[in-house]
Amino acid sequence: MSRLSLLLVLLVVLTAGCNGISSGSNVPDRDPYGVDDPLESSLANPGENVAGLTEEGVQNDSFVRDHYEVLSNQSYTTNQTTTATLANGTVLLESRESTLIDVENQRSLRRAQTTGTWNLSVRENDRERTTVEYRAENDGVSIGRPIVRIERGNGTVEYERGYDLSPRTAVNSRLGPLRDAEEIEIDRIRYTDDHYTVVRGTEPAAESVFLEDEPFSVQMLIRDDGLIYYVSLEATIERNDERVVVDQEFIVDDTEEVSIDQPDWYEEALEELDEDDVTRSESEVEA
After folding, report:
1. Cα–Cα distance between 231 and 138 in angstroms, integer?
2. What is the distance of C-alpha 25 from the center of its chain?
3. For residue range 113-141, what is the model confidence (pLDDT) as tens digits?
4. In angstroms, how far apart are the furthest CA atoms of the chain?
5. Are strands 128-138 and 217-223 parallel, antiparallel or unpaired?
6. What's the rounded Cα separation, in Å, for the pair 178 and 180?
7. How far is residue 159's CA from residue 172's CA, in Å, rounded to a whole number?
C-alpha cells in the first residue's frame, strides 16, 4: 500500500462529520515507512489519550517531546502548504514549504515558494519569491548561521544570513491553534500495522486570534510511536478590517534516507556575505 493511499484513507477519517480540510500536500507514492526500534507509545493502553493531551485540551507538551524523540536520530522531510483567502475569493497568499533534515551529513535545507503577502500595500513585483535556506554543521558545531538565498518575482537575487531556530519552535507554532480550541475530540484508528490517534479541535477560545463566528477546525494525526504525522487548520482571522480564511496543512512526508548536496550558489553567497561583513567592520572602525 502506497504512502499516498495511506494518507487518503486517513484524511477520509479526519474529514468525516466535519467541515473538511484543504488539499494540496504533495505526497510521493512510496511504501509506508516505519522505525526500526519504535519508542514506547504515549498511549499507556489502547484508547487512552496521548500524554499531555486530553479532551479537556493541551495539558503539557509531552506529546511534542515524543515527536522529536522519534525524529532525533534520523533524517526526515516535512512539507507545509498555507493559503489565505479573502471572503470574496481573492487569494492573498499561497505558500509551499519543504524542509529536509540530513542527519548523516549534518545538513538542512528549507525551500519556500510564496506568492502574495498578508500586506496588501506591498508592490506587485515583491509578491512572488523563492527562499532557500541551507545550513551545514561540522562535528555538531554550526558553521556560522544558515545562508539564505532569496529570489524575487522580478528576477533579483540576494543573500543573507539566517537565524538558528529550534525545530521545536516550528512545531509549537503549528500547535498554537490546538491550544486555542475550546472543544477537543480524540479517536483511535488502526491502519495496516500502525495505530494513530486522531485529534480534532473546534470552537476557538474568546481570546484567540481566530474568529469564533466562523468555521474553525484544527486536526492532527499522531502515530503510536509519538510521531506527529499530520496537522491541518481551517480558520478565519481579521486583518486590515478584512476577514481572511486560512487553510494550512503540515505533514512529515518522509522518514527514510535524506541526502542534501551543497547548493551550487553556496560559495558565491559566502563570498558576497563575507565581503559585506568586511565592509561593515571597516565602516565601524572608521566611525
Report:
1. 32
2. 11
3. 999 877 655 555 567 899 999 988 764 44
4. 69
5. unpaired
6. 5
7. 28
